[in-house]
Specification:
seven-stranded mixed β-sheet; Aspartate Aminotransferase, domain 2; homotetramer; three-stranded antiparallel β-sheet; alpha/beta; 41% helix
Chain lengths: 337, 337, 337, 337
Amino acid sequence: MRFYSDNNATVCPELLAAIHEANSAPTRGYGDDRWTQALDEAFGRFFGTAVTVFPVSTGTAANALALATIVPPYGAVYAHDEAHVVRDECGAPEFFSGGLRLVSLPGKGAMLDAATLERTLDAMPPSVHTVQPTAVTITQATELGRVYPPAAIAALARLAHARGLHVHMDGARIANALVTLGCSPAAITWEAGIDVLSFGATKNGGLAAEAVVFFRRDLVRDFELRRKRAGHLLSKSRYASAQLLAYVSTDAWSRNAGRANAAARRIGDACGESLLEPVEANEVFVRIGEPAKAALRAQGFEFYDWGAAQSGEARFVASWDQDPRATEALCRALEAL
Amino acid sequence: MRFYSDNNATVCPELLAAIHEANSAPTRGYGDDRWTQALDEAFGRFFGTAVTVFPVSTGTAANALALATIVPPYGAVYAHDEAHVVRDECGAPEFFSGGLRLVSLPGKGAMLDAATLERTLDAMPPSVHTVQPTAVTITQATELGRVYPPAAIAALARLAHARGLHVHMDGARIANALVTLGCSPAAITWEAGIDVLSFGATKNGGLAAEAVVFFRRDLVRDFELRRKRAGHLLSKSRYASAQLLAYVSTDAWSRNAGRANAAARRIGDACGESLLEPVEANEVFVRIGEPAKAALRAQGFEFYDWGAAQSGEARFVASWDQDPRATEALCRALEAL
Amino acid sequence: MRFYSDNNATVCPELLAAIHEANSAPTRGYGDDRWTQALDEAFGRFFGTAVTVFPVSTGTAANALALATIVPPYGAVYAHDEAHVVRDECGAPEFFSGGLRLVSLPGKGAMLDAATLERTLDAMPPSVHTVQPTAVTITQATELGRVYPPAAIAALARLAHARGLHVHMDGARIANALVTLGCSPAAITWEAGIDVLSFGATKNGGLAAEAVVFFRRDLVRDFELRRKRAGHLLSKSRYASAQLLAYVSTDAWSRNAGRANAAARRIGDACGESLLEPVEANEVFVRIGEPAKAALRAQGFEFYDWGAAQSGEARFVASWDQDPRATEALCRALEAL
Amino acid sequence: MRFYSDNNATVCPELLAAIHEANSAPTRGYGDDRWTQALDEAFGRFFGTAVTVFPVSTGTAANALALATIVPPYGAVYAHDEAHVVRDECGAPEFFSGGLRLVSLPGKGAMLDAATLERTLDAMPPSVHTVQPTAVTITQATELGRVYPPAAIAALARLAHARGLHVHMDGARIANALVTLGCSPAAITWEAGIDVLSFGATKNGGLAAEAVVFFRRDLVRDFELRRKRAGHLLSKSRYASAQLLAYVSTDAWSRNAGRANAAARRIGDACGESLLEPVEANEVFVRIGEPAKAALRAQGFEFYDWGAAQSGEARFVASWDQDPRATEALCRALEAL
């Protein structure tokens, strides 16, 4: 019974059907196909504003390409210390940009807050001797399963823009956040001041379907050359684009995220006081001690350790296709601890 | 009627079935799945020797990662002037390696030859002031649809190895070459001295299925970190790996390539004296004049211009799923010119 | 009366004489001269062990080349948050290495301590998803004018080596530290576990004379190619090398540093309770309030603000050629505050 | 008797005096000194137009920083196959820019010509798949001791600008070219269409004194950050700047170059039919056979081999401080061959 990660999940029927539909006949390569060509309009409808959209095959590529496009090699990017770009991408932003600096900041629930960012910027006045403050990146939902409310994003973005910084969002789990907030996709992105978004579908039912979405279309700049140069221009782009179209044009994104979130909430409820963070998306973080973890594993539950070695912490991630019986079994086992 | 490129083709039934099969249940991410874990063995059987194999999603990524792993930032890589790494990757090898130098060489049919390579190496004795000769890369089949016989590869590799250079093969169309030669996969790779291979399946029936194959397994070095850092470690690796397994474990590779080659040969036969290169794989290069090209296009044939502007040259590429009626129609139209 | 920085100082007589001596006749370029050839032996005597030494023209180049040689593009380097590599090099280590990550750590007096480093390493177990812990860099004397005792360096180096990390020292002001400690150059470098040293002479009487000193000579690797490629192989190397030879072969280094340290100590004594850090080298950090700073400036004293805007903090740096009358005038003015 | 290279030469009296003059008192670091601040005006007078000038310590740094500032990582730069940037900088332009492509072109006397450039550009129409044509770089005097007349430069620059390319000149030996042409510095630089110049003084009497001169001042862009980040912002910039000021404000540049050129011309005259290139600057290229080379060396003449191994070719370089007796001795020995 797998609670390792939502990247363990299968591809959902709508997106698999979209791949089949895109396979009906030959078509032009490198994005000159009707699926890729339709992305701007479909995402424009989804977000309620004009956007420029580029499909890529991984979230790391989306983040690193987005940042490298808007940040020079000597730029500083402010990010939470738990952010995927900081912890889980083997230095991809540094690589893609030619050496940008990620400045790690603290914050509850893996969320940045405007006050911390402001203090940091005040303490690092740029000169020719320093890296140059250029962007902020936040993750929605965060690496600790928390969700930024629109106002928190807007406060960060206001500060960032006032200081001349661009604002990027890592939306690997944006669908989970949207379902929790019940707000429009616009409310947590461009309306709140997000300039560029890494939009993820892979964790929520896709095969390999991520997108970079530019709300500030002037920031597209040389993105297409950087993508090609990084080996991320897919020759058969239509298969990624077809997934993305199906994802935002049907309710696949919300239904899948809704299922995952509900399962996580159910698990969170079963954790009681051991819960480390409120469950706001599809991830659950607990401190139950090493013996309890061993006991759960003995019962067939699979999940990752969390925190430092021997911290007794664990992470459970629920996926769109999580078997309800597995979820219930885990809840009973947690309650029995 | 499309003769643009084999990347316009659809996904073949065997590989689509493999995707479905990999979708039957959740599994571990990032390559810790049974499909990815089986790649070394399956490719080992295919090539008749122990190999280490990594799936990636594009040929550009395969080439650039392979070269960056075996070449330092100040390394020189010798390649044909028409090679994909030189002409069609927007500088990906330079980017992935941190600035390697591609030294472009001439050669008939987009093939390197040992004599040219030797003269070039002799004329550029390395010192601390120069880029350092490190690798040779050849393309099989070449960008002009030609096929290196095993002995030509072996001659190049012998020279390269004697000079301390590694040998890489861009095998985006290796299946087409193998079908033409009728030899074993070993004969044109490790037996001939290839150290690392970019193995392509996308153009020949895959969705997005390329692999880097290390015959010199000690050269794997930090490949996995470089791949992750470049955003090319797929979280749901199983879907690429399942395609690759199906491709090399069934006769999909040879049947698909055989069909494409046969169509190209048929087209080549129809070209008569206008043929620029012998047709040895699935590409046909002709000089028929701009009026003839316009006439063909008016009849619904789609293909790329070749050579300089107004050269009257054209390229026709046949795919595994080329409609035989389209091929016949093109042949008749060419014969009628 | 200048207390801005020791880089405001002039060139001392011994080093200027060395430049003249090196100018007596033509000689080979790019280091094939007798001054450069003598560096290994002279520095070997200075440090009491066999070393390999390379002259460069700036401290930033020394640090960045040293780190890029021993750290891969995806490596993590642990440094104090106040370190020159972190604050004052515009991202040079990231640039030279192709994207390494500087992990900033806290520590009193801008000194790293082994306990903090250990906690940090424990909290970041490396995997293919993370940057790879590779090196620690410390600054002697530190950016806050403090000096690591040999035992503190040894404790850090022991931990680092036990974890497989290399240890680099930024010795832009190593002479000032040596004079304070009264120990041998060996005691705070290779005997304490330093693998590679950026050795600075520019701030202490040189024109442009820095060196990278490898105690672990196997770590030299491709340093020479990286230096050339970075434009730091001087065609007329002899002028830098002659300065370095004079610096370590005479008592210029100790006499110059002794003068600067004495002046700083005198200033520190005049600061009383406003002192922020013990004065252990040639820098003095105080919190005296903005009005007092304005008053000092009105009297003709030149110095940099320190800390956040309006913090009332200031930095005074004493140089080898500091006019004793200026020092005395500053002391009296400080005492009068 | 040294004819290896002009980088073997000593520092001339005027520039050594300038170093002394700059050493009279402490001053601000990092270019905030009166010598560095005076560069724009002094070079403006020298070139007869407003310029922005930055001192650096090597010609490789000047070239690589200039190109990296005006060329993106995926840019193509057209250069002669014998150019210093291609042959002698260990890939510095690729490193500084993050991977630009140097496209090597042929041309007599190591000179590019407009027709070859035009053919090359026509044959490489840019798309998202290719590196992007961005700049041309030429060397004055060339690596084969030839000098571009103003009209040849203007023809190249006109073509380059018409195609949207910037034009850079490597002026490591620009003084030698100016003396030969007898024209104004303007005539072979901005008046002919040069946008950015690497201005060399080191080979012609400097200690380490090179400059990047922007005629297109809008192209300065982020040059200062790139220079700092590359370790090429000298903390004691005044010593380089003082040399540059003396060089362009006195007749040191022309007198030194005149001497070197005259010596080379004298040597060239002695070579007769063995001369490979007309002697237009301070370098002489001959084919005299290996036995003759051995004989010359036996008589104490030092010089580099040229061309392929056993080609019988040699290079003699004359310096500003070449001993006339050595020159005469060489001439007699050559005539005696």
